[in-house]
Amino acid sequence: MKLKKVSMRIHELKSGMIVAEEIKSGNIVLVSEGVELTDDLIKRLKDRYFEYKIMVYSEDDYEDENIIINRIKTVEEVKRSFDEFSNNVEEIFESMDGRIKVGITEIRNFANRVEKELNSPSAVIKNIVLYGSDNDCIFKHSVNVAALSSILGKWIGFDEKEIKFLTYAAILHDFGKTKIDKNILYKPGFLTTKEKEIIREHPVISYNFVKEIPYLHNSVTYGILMHHERLDGSGYPLGVKGDKIHPFAKIIAIADTFDAVNSNRTYKKREDPFAALETIQKESLGRLDYEYCKIFIEHIINYYVGENILLDTDKVCKIIQIHINDLSRPLLLDEGEFIDLRKERDLQIKNLVL
Predict the structure, then answer these.
(1) pTM, whole model, 2 decimals?
(2) DSSP state of 190
(3) CA atoms 147, 196, 261, 76: torsion sign
(4) 329: which of 160, 165, 240, 342 fits an S-S bond (Cβ 3.0–4.6 Å)?
(5) For residue 103, what pLDDT is reported?
């Protein structure tokens, strides 16, 4: 039977598959062409968090169809899990109202459940990109931010302990919003100066509650308190700059911004799936950490490549290449013909499709 090359993600690989093109990290060859994949080799690739698509040999189209079906199913399963996690976060936040004391064990157990879901990061990222956090700016948003923060922390190179504390901080970062008047929090129009000041109190409210959790590491509380600080000093509540902002807060700020732009809110509708990337890139020039943003964008665009998008003409095309200096105008493939959106300026992307 004739072999052909198939593009697959790390979590789709199976022992016995043959690598069709060498796997590289920069100029370093990690796995040579023609090497048979083993469970140990796949595990090492996963551990290093290389989530770029890998070319392997496949025998027929039937296998390709199964891969696509399995990937869709995985995204749907992740969505169901994240919906359940959102309810869990709501329960945790409710128990932090002063009547019932939350211990570090509850936070740790929940973070571990989130981490297990991240064994399939491509499905997690695609779920977040596809659905955002709907209109839920607290609970589902916290789950998405926790997942993205943990993934980015791994891309940056944090160790297991740091990832654990980072995930705690991301889960709890917006607890303070539960103590803000919902008429202000979900106001559809412009906020008054006073209402903006009230909204900006949520990091301090979160910090004051969370610091009472026994045995919680200080890095967690710093990440929570500073997640709206910006490198140029324009953030809040402290107005600190640069290196005075905790690394956890810098990471959560990126994840928080991405999910907020990529989600519906009472005051705005979500934009196309590339708007969040462009916002991160723009904010990296003085407000968000440049190196962290660069790592985030360079990695996450690999999850867009190979996926289908819907144009405003209702035509479905496949993303072939994303240009780092023009993120919202990728190169597309439509029934064997290329469409370069950098040249076809009249065409607009509506959304990603399964």
Answers:
(1) 0.81
(2) P
(3) positive
(4) 342
(5) 75
